[in-house]
Request: fold
Amino acid sequence: MAIMKQPFFSLLLLLVVLCYSTTTSAQSPAAAPAPSPSSAPTDIIRILKKAQGFTTLIRLLKTSQVANQIDSQLLNSNSGLTFFAPSDSAFQSLKAGFLNSLNDQQKNELIQFHMLPSFVATTNFDTLSNPVRTQAGADPDRLALNITGSGNQVNLTTGIVNATVGGTVYTDNQLAVYQVDKVLIPRDIVVPKPPAPAPAPAKTKTSKKKSADTAASPADDDSAAMTLKQRMWVPVGVAAIAALAVSL
Reply:
């Protein structure tokens, strides 16, 4: 009997284990699929640091707060951005002390002048209408940027500086970053602004007293004095004539 009971208990134990495993599996929720990693937001500083050779530009982007503006605009706009990035060697070719001579507003304008408010691929530069509009403004005289493309070469001119696109730093069909060999300096920064026109002279109201004083000229005063003298001589002349008649 003991020999017969051992297989029976082994089989019973196996059934209990199988039932417990089935029940536990049914009660456990199915494992949710791992979420796909979302793409990180565009970070212009990270892009330039990875490319290397843009230390001065990175510092200006941070101090002027333009870096935050770029990242924010890329998140909230569908038109994208194009950024011309001067290398460290481009900044080194500037006149000594040039950057330090600029105030905060001018530094901000300088960086904004390197940005186009839409994404432009290298093959589309020849389709742009010059002067192109930059983020610095639309003044055709003082903020003009002209871009010409011929084959693989792209040239830029500001009226002060002639530059060339040296290559693509980054592109994702929303943001295009191109390296340029010169800092793009607009006329608005280095050419003195024309003086403002002088204001028209204000019209003064003439008072009645001044008008009366003006009407009484010195000539009129002399005429009045002569008339008084003449009136005083009339009785004197009459008296002299009468005395002469008596003596005769």
In short: The beta strands are 81-86, 115-116, 146-150, 153-157, 162-171, 175-180. DSSP finds nine helices and six strands in the chain.
